[in-house]
Amino acid sequence: MRNPQSFNRYVYAGNNPLAAIDPKVLLPIDFIAGLNISVLQIFVLFGLSVWLSNVSAWSIPEIRGVLRWEGSRVNRAGLHRKAFMENRSPISILQLHVTERCNKRCTHCYHDDSNEVLSEMHTDQLISLIDNFELICQGRNWRGQVTFAGGEPFIRPDFMPLLREVARRPAMRFAILTNGTFIDERIAQELAALKPTFVQISIEGGPPTHDAIRGKGDFHRSLRLLSLLKRAHIRTLVSFTAHRANYREFPVVAQYVRQSGGDVLWSDRLVPVGRGSQLETLTPAEARSFFEIMDIERLRSERYSTTKIRMHRSLQFLCGGEGHYRCSAGRRLLAVMPDGVVYPCRRLPIALGNVLTTPLEKMYESGEKICDAPSGCSQCDHFTRCQGGARCIAYAVHGKLGEVDPGCWVPKTLAVDRMNTSDNH
After folding, report:
1. Which of 59, 131, 206, 315 has the fewest other C-beta atoms within 10 Å?
2. C-alpha gyration radius of the chain
3. Is the torsion defined by CA of 26, 31, 37, 42 positive or negative?
4. pTM exceeds 0.90, yes or no
5. Selection from 312, 333, 332, 328 nearest residue 391 by Cα
6. Which residues are 202's β-sheet partners?
């Protein structure tokens, strides 16, 4: 072992009946952490010889994280047992916006209020695009995921046949971002048969705040939808878009999601584009406060609920999140608009080309450098892993690439530390 670092504790394991692992080697972290169970339960279920040791951690390329011990639970975001046994190649996401039409006018949406509606690719064009994406994933050894979005994707009459087309491909998976208004008992059962990776809806605060953003009565309708999807055994994600007017309501949302049986609650900060440009994104102090609120709710959920609160987005690792986040836009994430125009990310509207005229492979080549880290972060201790935080927020606020995430409080802290160091000398 080499390169000692100061982490608190490791979990060691031996006598593992599930895999031939040297007893002196750490049990693969994603596996044991994804179980989210107590050490006593690990003894009983798997016959592991597990003990905690206050030793220095070691930088081993094969070990992809460090477990933290909190009370009687092993805690770290990771893959579940099934995923551990499966292909561990990187995931590549093609976010496919099949329409801009929507029956909602949410105040924070990245769509604008213009009456112009983009033309939409035909079903066969979308299937051809998915074919190309599948080939690219095979060539690059990626696990491919098509995430369908809009507008509201269920508005398209060919949406369910399109889902069936993707679901029949064993090497692909799919997910849906929706406002859920078109999902009834029948649709839920059809979706369950197709086995989506998840269906995501949004909750933006308590009932008054949420309804002010997404429409009167939408809050309780969204809770009913969560219950409907749970009964259909569909994995549900709930998104909370944090801005200055609602971020303090995250605990309220967390409690409602826990009560409704949502599987995952996660949050990202508002990107001030489209209608969302009328709202204010979080200041550095507010971002830090918000992430601390999230971490409290994350720990509460781990102890008292099956709902998982994810802290896996930009800067959240600074307040107890799940590890450094690095934007993959343009690299392993592309967003395709209804008319075929490709962005590195829907919230980073820099056109890379159009799939109707340019091969999708070329878009990855064009997008490689889009999210390079800003030079203003180069002195930060987290530079090589964080790579500048949310590139989409920086672009929306500053109007150009290469700027520092405006919600990051670390650069100022480092500057003060260096100033104090210089004064002491």
Report:
1. 59
2. 22
3. negative
4. no
5. 328
6. 239
